[in-house]
Amino acid sequence: MEACAAATYGAASTCTPLNFTFSHGRTKTLLHSQIPIPSKKGTGKSFSIVNASRRTLSSNWLVSDDDFSASTTSPRLPRLEELDTTNMLLRQRIIFLGSQVDDMTADFIISQLLFLDADDPKKDIKLFINSPGGSVTAGMGIYDAMKLCKADVSTVCVGLAASMGAFILASGTKGKRYCMPNSRVMIHQPLGTAGGKATEMSIRIREMAYHKIKINKILSKITGKSVDQIDLDTDRDNFMNPWEAKEYGLVDEVIDDGKPGLVAPIADSSPPPRTRVWELWKIEGSRKAKKNLPSEHKFLEEAYKKVQGGDDDKGTQQENEAPAAV
């Protein structure tokens, strides 16, 4: 049976097992299940349990509106240093596949592709790949998501793109598939094992053959080579350097140090906002001191003059040198 409590507004009662003191001046008897709970905003009511005979409630328990006001903090945007590198890259429309292609990785990549495509379908999505490959079904899920996106998906190989990693690399938008000069690309046929009963093994083998034919047809469409040629080239592990991968049709360009223009389609995103590091470099002083500080444009201009001046002086020195007597 529920115990009754005399709720006293203004004066506490000593003859009841539960004795409440409220900030108003009325008296009311309540069941234990009818104990009022203070709201988070603006009721102005607070109470304290002076004496309690039930062990489920602690004595001298104070509740006031201030206890709730501290938890309702005003919302704010997270600082850039509070975000991880994945979110920072995502703000620049960059996705990084740097592990094996499994179901969890595929879910993560697919969700990022769909988010960036919904955010702005007119801007390119950059997918950097450094993966040894993995699950065929997970890789086909990423492939379908890339084809589903209205935005162009630019793929870049850094390090290694093997097996399904190479397949995803070649599945990027034509003309926007890149390879770093020191990376490697490898294609081969699907791998797997079959065990159990003979019937179960035949089912697994038939499924592996299906994936092999499906991947070879897609690679044939991407590279322009025949299915028989793809089947022959993927019979064993086929490693390629970036230029061989370009000639084969898996990528379009190699980002070489001698061709800096190829980096432009990848680095077209806006710079990130200033962080706390900027405050460490901020110059304090008068306006005149700040005005006389050399800017980045001045640094580049002075460096260009030094280079031009050094070449001119070298040429003048060579002209003034007399020919050696024979």
TrEMBL record:
Entry's Gene Ontology molecular function annotations: ATP-dependent peptidase activity; ATPase binding; serine-type endopeptidase activity
Enzyme class, UniProt record, top EC level: hydrolase
Q: Which InterPro entries match?
A: ClpP (IPR001907), ClpP/crotonase-like_dom_sf (IPR029045), ClpP/TepA (IPR023562), ClpP_His_AS (IPR033135), ClpP_Ser_AS (IPR018215)
Xref: SUPFAM superfamilies: ClpP/crotonase (SSF52096)
Keywords from UniProt, A to Z, are: Hydrolase, Protease, Serine protease
Gene Ontology CC annotations of this record: chloroplast thylakoid; chloroplastic endopeptidase Clp complex
Q: Give start-end positions of Basic and acidic residues composition bias.
A: 305-316
Where is the stretch described as Disordered? 305-326
Q: Which domain of life is it from?
A: Eukaryota
In the UniProt record, does the keyword Protease occur? Answer: yes
Is Hydrolase among this UniProt entry's keywords? yes
One Pfam family recorded for the sequence: CLP_protease
Q: Name one GO biological process term.
A: protein quality control for misfolded or incompletely synthesized proteins
Give its E.C. classification number.
3.4.21.92
Q: Where is the active site?
A: S163, H188
Q: Which family does it belong to?
A: Belongs to the peptidase S14 family.
The molecule here is called ATP-dependent Clp protease proteolytic subunit
Q: What is the lineage of its organism?
A: Eukaryota, Viridiplantae, Streptophyta, Embryophyta, Tracheophyta
